[in-house]
C-alpha cells in the first residue's frame, strides 16, 4: 500500500452501471518522509476519509477485496485512515502519545 | 484509476477473435493539476467517450470487470466520463454549479 | 494496452514445459506521438505479427486470456496488429483512407 | 520480489474490517547494490520482521497468498527476512560463513 | 516478460512456510540493446539458471502459473534461459548459427 493525502473528489454521471454509488477520492501520494509526491490515484473510498487526511491506498485486484466491490471495475481503494506513521522510532505523522 | 483525455483511436483488423467489437481509445494521462502527462494507455471504452473528453481509466484485471469483457484480453478500460474534478475545494475541471 | 513495434525475437530451449510452443517477440514501446521509447517487453504472439509492424500489447493477467494460454506463465501478449492510429483527427500511423 | 529495509510502522484505527489485526510495516526499498532507494511500500508482515532488518516483499495478488490473508485488501506482504544477499559471488549483506 | 542477467542469490531462513524450497535468484534487468539496467527483481527459479546467464522473467500472477507454485506468495519467476536474442535481424545475444 502507499500513503496518500486526500486532495479532492472526482465525479462522473455517465459511467458503467457497476460504478454507481462508488465515492471516488483524488489522492496525492506521500513519500516515506511525509512529503507530497507528483503522483496521484483516483480511488474508491469505503472508509469515509475527509479532505487533507492521510490514508492507505491499495492498488490492483486488492481494490476489489471488499464486500460489495467484488464485481466493480476498481483498481484502487482506501483501506484505512492513517493515525500515525513512525520512521526510525520518530513519529512523522499523527499525535504524540501522552 | 487515473484521469485521462481522449486523444484518438487505434484500429486493427488482424487480431485475437476475443478483441472483436471492442472500441479502443487512445487516452493521454492527466496529472492532479489537470496537465497532460507524457503517458498514454490504449483502453477499451464501453462508456462511449468522445474526443477531448476527460475520462477515468482503470488498469489490470479491473478492465475485465464488465459484462462481456470477462474473457477478453484487456488490461485497461474507461469506467466513467468525468464531469468535475475538485482539488482543495477548487473546481479544476467541469462546470461550476450555479 | 500499449503500442509497440516488433523489433525481434527471443529464443530459449531450457524453459518451463508450459512455455513450449510459445512464440516470443521483442517489442519496443511507442509513445502517443509514434516515437520509439527506451522500453520493451518480451511478449507471446498468437496473432502472427512481423518485424517492424506496430502491435497492441497487453500486460498482466490479461496475457492469459486466450485459448491455450490460460495456464502458461505469461504476463504480456500481442492482441492485435495495428492498422491505424488517429490522434486529434490526424492519422499518425497507417494508410490514409482513399 | 524486492529487497527492502524495515523503517517503521503505519497505524490506523478507522479502516476496513478486513484490515483488523494486520501489522503494517513501512519498508524502504534497496537496490541490487544494497543502497536505499527513494521508494517505499507499506506491507503486511506475517513473518515478524524487526526495525532495520532486510526483508523480501512481494506485491500484487501475491500478497494474499497466505493463510488468513486471502480476503484481505492487501497488495504487499513481507515473505521472508533476508539472511544473506550474494552478488557475483560477493556477499553484500549478511554474515560471512565461517 | 523482461530479459535479465543472473547476478546472485538471496537467502532467508525466517520466512512464510509457503516459501520453503523456493530458490531465489537476484536478477538484474537488461534493456533491448543488451545493456544492464539499474533495476532488479528477486525471482523464483524453477528452471535452474546459473550465474551470468540471461533469463526471461515474468512478474505478477504469472509467477504462480507453475506446478507447485500456485499457492506460494510469488510475484516473479524465471520462465526460460535465453539462448538467443535477435533485434532487426542482428543477433545481440547468443551463438551465431553455423
UniProtKB/TrEMBL annotation, chains A, B, C, D, E:
<dbReference type="InterPro" id="IPR046387">
    <property type="entry name" value="CcmL"/>
</dbReference>
<dbReference type="GO" id="GO:0015979">
    <property type="term" value="P:photosynthesis"/>
</dbReference>
<dbReference type="GO" id="GO:0043886">
    <property type="term" value="F:structural constituent of carboxysome shell"/>
</dbReference>
<comment type="subunit">
    <text>Homopentamer. Interacts with full-length CcmM.</text>
</comment>
<comment type="function">
    <text>Probably forms vertices in the carboxysome, a polyhedral inclusion where RuBisCO (ribulose bisphosphate carboxylase, rbcL-rbcS) is sequestered. Has been modeled to induce curvature upon insertion into an otherwise flat hexagonal molecular layer of CcmK subunits.</text>
</comment>
<dbReference type="InterPro" id="IPR036677">
    <property type="entry name" value="EutN_CcmL_sf"/>
</dbReference>
<keyword id="KW-0602">Photosynthesis</keyword>
<dbReference type="InterPro" id="IPR004992">
    <property type="entry name" value="EutN_CcmL"/>
</dbReference>
<keyword id="KW-0120">Carbon dioxide fixation</keyword>
<keyword id="KW-1282">Carboxysome</keyword>
<dbReference type="GO" id="GO:0031470">
    <property type="term" value="C:carboxysome"/>
</dbReference>
<keyword id="KW-1283">Bacterial microcompartment</keyword>
<comment type="similarity">
    <text>Belongs to the CcmL/EutN family. CcmL subfamily.</text>
</comment>
<dbReference type="Pfam" id="PF03319">
    <property type="entry name" value="EutN_CcmL"/>
</dbReference>
<dbReference type="GO" id="GO:0015977">
    <property type="term" value="P:carbon fixation"/>
</dbReference>
<protein>
    <recommendedName>
        <fullName>Carboxysome shell vertex protein CcmL</fullName>
    </recommendedName>
</protein>
